[in-house]
UniProtKB/TrEMBL annotation:
It comes from the Eukaryota. This is Disease resistance protein. SUPFAM superfamilies: RNI-like.
Amino acid sequence: MERLPEAQLFSPQLSKLTLWGCKLVEDPMVTLESLPNLKYLSCWEMFVGKKMVCSSNGFPKLEVLVIRGFSNLEEWVVENQAMSYLYRLSISDCNKLKTVPDGLKFVAGLRELEFRWMPKSFKNRLGIAGEDYHKVQHVPSIVFFH
């Protein structure tokens, strides 16, 4: 499967979605961010592209986002006003991702960040003395697991 179906083919009442092993080539966020009632999204090994974008006003009700095993992901862009209700973000096993998106600093309600099996350089950039700490300094709980 190269891409997800159009957003209108999903139920407008869909609030929880888990996608696993799809190996999508096209950025899935274009479709997923348009689902009006999506509150929980878990994506495991479902995207093989290098860049992912969450657009302004996308994911209007998303509260929890889990991303795992995006092995080719190098860049993730979160535009201002995207995911405005997000409170928990978990990123695991995305070894080419150098840092969190700049736009996370605008997600004011973000309360929990969890990172698993990420490179040491990723962790170092987000530490208190790290060059990207300003992106996550507003988040009360930041946890790294190995």
